[in-house]
Amino acid sequence: MALCVAILATDGVEECELVQPRQALERAGIRTLLVSPQKGEIQSMQGDVHPASRHKVDASIGTAADMELAGVVLPGGTTNPDKLRIDEAAIAFLRGFVAEGKPIASICMVPGH
User: Fold this and answer.
1) Buried (b) or exposed (e) across 56-83, using 16+ Cβ within 10 A?
2) What percent of the chain has pLDDT over 70?
3) What three-state secondary structure class fits 50?
4) Angle at 69 between CA 91 and CA 99, to 5 degrees
């Protein structure tokens, strides 16, 4: 069974910081799961102000918290981390990874963007 890594994001996530790490993980044979406080889709941005793509959410935080996940990636932008750091469910989700000693990757900037 392939490893599965959560990517925790919400509306306003920087497009390249969501897409490029996800592609790299999947090329390495690691399954990814886009996790968000909301269901449906999230809107990614370019440079925090220009709408980019919409991305299908694979699981809400509540659902993902009960899954066997190997780690979590936190893409950046300005809006994504600002929204997540005040979301109690997102904080609890991340604390679960800390408590289990699982890796947490936080992205600030993707080179060339």
Assistant:
1) ebbbebeebeeeebebbbbbbbebbbeb
2) 95
3) strand
4) 50
pLDDT at position 68, please?
Answer: 94
For tokens 């060339």, name the residue: 112
How far is Cα 90 from Cα 86, in angstroms, rounded to an integer? 8
Give me the sign of the Cα torsion angle 3, 57, 73, 21. positive
Does domain 14-106 match CATH 2.40.400.10?
Answer: no
Domain boundaries, the chain: 14-106
Is residue 42 within 8 Å of residue 9, measured between CB atoms? Answer: yes
In which residue are the tokens 């890594």 written?
A: 5
8 A C-beta contact, residue 9 and residue 80: yes
What is the tens place of the pLDDT at every residue in 13-59? 999 999 999 999 999 999 999 999 999 999 999 988 999 999 999 99
